[in-house]
Specification:
- Keywords: TPR repeat.
- GO terms for molecular function: identical protein binding.
- The protein is an all-alpha fold and 282 residues long.
- Helices cover 73% and strands 0% of the residues.
- It has 15 helices and no strands.
- Helix 7 runs antiparallel to helix 8 and helix 8 packs parallel to helix 10.
- The radius of gyration is 19 Å and the shape is globular.
Length: 282
């Protein structure tokens, strides 16, 4: 799929401006409910399975995350100064929605390894996960090497700008990251969520569909796609997408919650009116 070029930002209508706070809240609530669904399951003791041990944390299933959490908790207890164990443990904690604990782990790692750029970058992501954006941005920018820029750090930096209302700056950062890593689904997903937070659902869906088609896309990318499809009132399609990542019961619960919130806030009507106005002007 061809990416939409980022040009000048169009003027926003009153309906879209009114919808933005609701959309931002909806993204946060739906993301939290999905993460909580993973975190609420009972923790399985024992070591990580051989298959799971070679997977990126972001690509682990809920069961593998539970196993990884138990295993790395023990590893970290044995050797808290091992930076690789600390970073992986913190990442697993974040994936299980234990952000405060992840930050505590990375704060200690940053004290133990004050000059390590990998640790500094992971510390910045942990800070962002609890809303400490100013400190997070400082840590991530200090971890970046301007002579050899890391697309992952650029994408993380863009996400912080988005979460602090600087979407134009965020998208410029994402575009720079895409020149380093063309077609990377996590960057495309961040771009999609950037437009979602602004209320531009059609453009958000384009980016998220492109991201979801990548063979390296993780579960969060497809759950973001399900969210933006649901926000456009296509609930059955959203549920079908969500069922690829969640149990049928969880997928239905998320979509039912989304439908209820849209009904209560009348947000779908606002978005629909905006789309009808755009169509009439074409």
């Amino acid at each position: 799929m061809r990416r939409i070029a980022n040009g000048a930002r169009p003027a926003s209508s009153p309906q879209r401006q009114e919808a933005r706070p609701f959309l931002r809240a909806m993204v946060i609530l739906l993301a939290a409910s999905t993460a909580t669904a993973c975190a609420d399951r009972s923790i399985t003791t024992g070591s990580i399975s051989p298959a799971a041990s070679h997977k990126a944390v972001e690509q682990m299933t809920a069961t593998e995350l539970e196993q990884a959490l138990a295993s790395y908790s023990k590893s970290y207890e044995r050797n808290p100064k091992d930076k690789n164990v600390a970073m992986t443990f913190a990442s697993i904690l974040r994936m299980n929605n234990r952000n405060e604990q992840a930050l505590a782990v990375m704060r200690k790692a940053a004290i133990d390894h004050p000059d390590d750029k990998q640790v500094l970058a992971a510390y910045g992501k942990a800070l962002a996960s609890v809303g400490e954006f100013t400190q997070a941005l400082d840590a991530i920018q200090r971890a970046q090497d301007p002579t050899r820029p890391d697309w992952r750090l650029l994408s993380a930096e863009g996400a912080i700008y988005d979460q602090t209302g600087r979407s134009g700056q965020a998208r410029r950062i994402y575009e720079k990251a895409l020149t380093l890593q063309p077609g990377e689904p996590t960057i495309l997903s961040n771009l999609g969520m950037s437009y979602l937070l602004e209320g531009d659902l059609a453009r958000a869906e384009n980016y998220l569909r492109e991201a979801a088609q990548s063979p390296t896309a993780d579960s969060r990318v497809r759950q973001n796609l399900a969210l933006v499809v649901g926000l456009q009132g296509r609930f059955e399609e959203a549920e079908q997408i969500a069922q690829r990542e969640l149990s049928p019961q969880q997928a239905q619960a998320n979509v039912d919650y989304l439908r209820k919130m849209l009904s209560q806030q009348n947000a779908w009507n606002m978005i629909q009116q905006e789309d009808e106005k755009k169509t009439a002007q074409q």
